[in-house]
Design a protein that fits this description.
The protein is an alpha/beta fold and 381 residues long. Helices cover 46% and strands 10% of the residues. The longest helix is centred in the last third of the chain and has 32 residues, at 333-364.
């Protein structure tokens, strides 16, 4: 199949992945209102077309946290990405390295951080949750530092996991024991290519970064159960002192959707934030990242590096986020759809499409470099 847009990757991934895994990455919480808003609110932002501007030379490069990048995008942390292609996080980091953009490894990756570091040719970022098990957190920061990770992306919007109806309907959640295992096995058996390549040879029983805690004989249910029971609803801004005492590199707070919280992050010494509602997977009914972004950028843009995610499905969407005030954009579902559809080559192709779409959009809005991308390229409504 010829992939021409992110929607093409999504459709192929839907056909190739077991139903419960596709629903896990594709769905949001509750009625998925926020999930839809993320996409819809970006799509209705009108770009201002300009002509006769000499756009023969377009520069998409930038720098984030001291790292030069060919594009203003990074691959966002996605849990269990190794279940979408064989050793999927390693395939993702290789594609990101080839495109000269950052890759962010999730705490709940299938591939452990050391395996990803061995596959990488450039430094990558590491994402961490605030967990009850502070010893595990401390060990992970040490491992991240030893693996050469240059930035820590600290996710703060998960004091508890949002309820995701699709996961219950598919059997991914709420179906413990033998019955749940048989249901998932039956769905996997309907995808023999995936079952052979990922389910058998992909070593899915190796539980990535939490294997030292649970052991290699544990299953996905144990893995998800340990993570869920370790989310800490008692965490406060004061707990950033613990993170700062253990991590000396750039610290990025992910999951900020309110300007007051962004100011708090800046006051407490964060280097950056990610304006994010967790892809619509946490509090349903909240505003989209695109609508939250301008007021947050206005509040702290001179003190923090502002990244954003949520609903980005094209290079035009990346340009819209930048115009709304972001310094960079994190791609989540887009890269995992591509991974599930065609592995590393799919992720590389997706990034090529994003770059091409950005280049065309910049030329048609009369902008030659990212320094010229601001709200002036948007139509006033």
């Amino acid at each position: 199949m010829t992939f021409t847009c992110v929607a093409d990757f999504r459709e192929v991934a839907r056909r190739r992945l077991p139903h419960f895994f596709f629903e896990y990455i594709d769905g949001g919480s509750y009625g998925e209102v926020t999930l839809r808003r993320n996409v819809d609110d970006l799509g209705v932002i009108a770009l201002r077309q300009r002509v006769l501007r000499d756009v023969s030379q377009i520069d998409l490069s930038t720098e984030l946290f001291g790292q030069s990048m060919a594009l203003p995008v990074a691959l966002a942390p996605v849990g269990l990405a190794g279940m979408y292609a064989r050793r999927g996080e390693c395939q993702g980091v290789r594609a990101a390295n080839k495109a000269d953009i950052p890759f962010t490894l999730s705490t709940v990756s299938l591939c452990p951080i050391e395996e990803v570091a061995a596959a990488a040719s450039k430094p990558f970022w590491f994402q961490l949750y605030m967990l009850r098990d502070r010893g595990f957190m401390r060990d992970m920061m040490v491992r991240a530092r030893e693996a050469g990770c240059t930035a820590l992306v600290f996710t703060v919007d998960l004091p508890i996991a949002g309820s995701r109806y699709r996961d219950y309907r598919s059997g991914f959640a709420g179906a413990p024991g033998l019955g749940g295992q048989l249901r998932r096995f039956a769905q996997a058996a309907m995808r023999p290519r995936w079952a052979w390549d990922v389910g058998l040879w992909g070593r899915p029983h190796h539980l990535g970064n939490v294997a030292p805690v649970l052991g290699d004989n544990s299953g996905i249910e144990d893995f998800l159960g340990w993570i869920g029971s370790n989310f800490d609803p008692a965490v406060t801004w004061g707990d950033l002192d613990f993170i700062r005492s253990e991590w000396t590199g750039p610290l990025v707070i992910k999951g900020v959707l309110d300007a007051d919280d962004a100011r708090e992050a800046a006051a407490l010494g964060a280097d950056g934030i990610v304006v994010s509602n967790h892809g619509g997977r946490q509090l349903d009914g909240t505003i989209s990242s695109a609508r939250a972004l301008p007021r947050i950028a206005d509040a702290v843009g001179d003190r923090l590096t502002v990244l954003a995610d949520g609903g980005v499905r094209s290079g035009l969407d990346v340009l819209r986020m930048l115009a709304l005030g972001a310094n960079g954009v994190m791609l989540g579902r887009a890269w995992v759809y591509a991974l599930g559809a065609a592995g590393e080559a799919g992720v590389s192709r997706m990034l090529e499409l994003i770059e091409g779409e950005m280049r065309v959009a910049m030329m048609l809005t009369g902008t030659r470099s990212l320094s010229e991308v601001n709200q002036n390229i948007l139509e006033r409504t």
